[in-house]
Amino acid sequence: MAGGEGTRLRPLTTSLPKPLLPVGERPIMEHVLRLLRRHGIRETVVTVQFLAHLIQERFGDGSGLGMSLTYAHEETPLGTAGSVKNAERELAGAPFLVISGDALTDIDLSALIRHHRERGALVTVCLTRVPDPLEFGVTVLGADGRIERFLEKPTWGEVFSDTVNTGIYVMEPEVLDRVPAGKPVDWSGDVFPRLIAEGAAVHGYVADGYWQDVGTLDSYRQAQTDLLDGRVDGELPGTEVLPGVWVADSASVDPEADVRGPVVIGEHARVAAGARVHEHSVIGAHGVVEPGAHLHRAVLHPYAYAGSHTSLRGCVVGRNATTGRSARLEEGVIVGEDSRVGQDAVVSAGVVVNPARTIGPGAVIGTDLIWDGRGSRSLFGPRGVSGVVNVDLTAELVVRLTGAYATTVPHDATVTVARDHAQGSRVLAAAVVSALQSSGVHVRDLGHVPVPVARREAALTDGGVLLTATPGAADSVSLTFLDGHGVDLGTAAQRKLERLLHQARFRRAPAGEFGGLLSGEESARTAITAYTERLLRRTGTAAIRERAPKVVVDAAFGSGALVLPGLLDGLGVRAVTLNTGLDDERATETDIERRAALRYLGDVVAANDADFGVRVDPTGQRIAVVDERGGIVPDETLLLLLAGLVTAERPGGTVVLPPTVSRAAESVAARHGGRVVRTASAPDRAIRAAGAAGTVLAADGHGGFTFPENSPYTDGFGALARLTGLLTRRARPLSELVQEVPRTFVRRRELTTPWEAKGAVMRQVAEAAAGLEVDTTEGIRVIEPDGRWALVLPDASRAVTRVWAEAPSADAADALLARWADAVSRSTA
Fold this sequence. Notes:
It is built from 22 helices and 54 strands.
């Protein structure tokens, strides 16, 4: 399989197909072909598409390697299965092995083939275990060795194993009868799930050998190191003239050069006297290293030039690129082909230089922003991209992120921009607007509006960008990108945005074609008025006006102050409002501050003889409630109460909840013929589930509620209006209704888990759950025969794993939590 573009490896793959990237001075694909030959496989079909002629020119008919190569061309990408179907004629109806031409491996293919034959399998999938399974197809094996489930490129909430698909398969020819010709089809996404569902013999083989998918710049550098260190059983070119020093016969290495293995020096390369070529460096064919140059963990592609007294550390220099005298390339730098780094220039850590660029003499190129140092393996977290303002999330990064997002929307599109009243949000919003306009995107800048209003307005345009203070972190801002439905970008769209960001592939509009700007307070007022009027129309206010309940509402010094006056007046309640002043130092709150505010709200409700009190969070998305006595209603109790009230008024309705919420919700909904559907907590998935036909309520368990007849989004104002109507029609004190809610015992614990151990933890949890019912909606939920359950869920943005447990009593819940927390701890020991 050699047809991929390798977009995540740009700029190294801008004009070079990924299989031709050199590792240890040989193309990755050559290492794969040599592995096939060692296992007696000499007849090979190569599927090609991107820059196919370069692969054919490099390997020809395979005779140079003692093999027979033929090529199957694709006009357009056909997917992993479609590519093989396209090569069906060349396979001549025989059993065949599929292997990637761009993964470095020494897996025992002979053992894999024997396993396939001994089991009589239709398909055998070669599996391996990796510390970070997010970029691969996670796989679960049954006790009989058959594959039970595939999941391509999961989120952390979907990781249930560290056992992943290597893309190496042994297949019987009749498998191709299941693949339509000329259409894009994938093995693990399309074909294998169908075969598994039909009970076909799709087996897995867990291999012990080395396997590295060379899919990113980091993994490319790691592959170089691993090959030189002997961690992979590969063949290095040239002759080992000193321990670990491999030099091609035609290379010229001056005796006064300081060369320390492991290193590889390619054909016709030249290393001058006084040069220092140190550990884990590779000098490609015709590369030149001048006197005084110092290379350490540096990879020079063919024809690259390192000038005298240059310093190259942990970097990659592309084909025919030049670094001038005394230039310095720091850790993680990638210099694209045909680029020129001038004399005395400094390229700081992590910077990517695109092909054919020139860096002038003495220039200092600033550090690229790298997210890994923040402890997250993904740029995106549960609230978009979050970080400390001007530390993690700078104006420069916001411009680049927004530029990448703008590149994904149509030219001449209109995007809504909105923010809360935090100082950081206000400052960074200007960067968002400028980046969108410079990409040719029109901007509707609402300024400060509540998030539910902003989402609705984004759905009236082509997308949106929100900036809000990160909950509980006053110095941080969350940057959330929305699609044309006002919904957070899904995982696939987030990955695309990240690729564009790291490749610096941004659309830029020429002068005269910049996007337009519609902004101002009038635009925000219009949006808020339209939102409020729509909410009131859908609420049904007659019963509320007739009874005129007394309600204390706390705006939490936030965006609620912009909506609540019109909403409360329209509802017809007797309102007492608190904290309606906008305070940019209180744009968010800690849990301690929230609890203190709720206690004060309870005091005010009791003192004013009010029916109940509601606190709307600073962004207008979530609510917290106190009863007429001033008692705080716990979030989960409020959820169960609303589920019962809503399904009583709309029997048979569906309630959408995350897996972490008590199973008492099922019994509450069932009283009125309702049902509960569990869905992953990612915002895009929850919103889409809430929009399904028959849904009457969706909730997140943390005060966030969606009433689909009002809005498809988590909406604190909609929840306030709906709760007021429900309680008014019941005409009973809230405290009495709360007493009727089933008591629950849900416990939770958070355990530190190194990133590299998360996949192994989930696999071992799955193994420990053997024989019990398991639900993998999000994480792994293990269900005991008596209904008690535990949920193990790795955090998407922190090096922790969370464990929940529910049982009929507090002691039983604590014991169950301790049992599964111990299982997680043992997995990381």
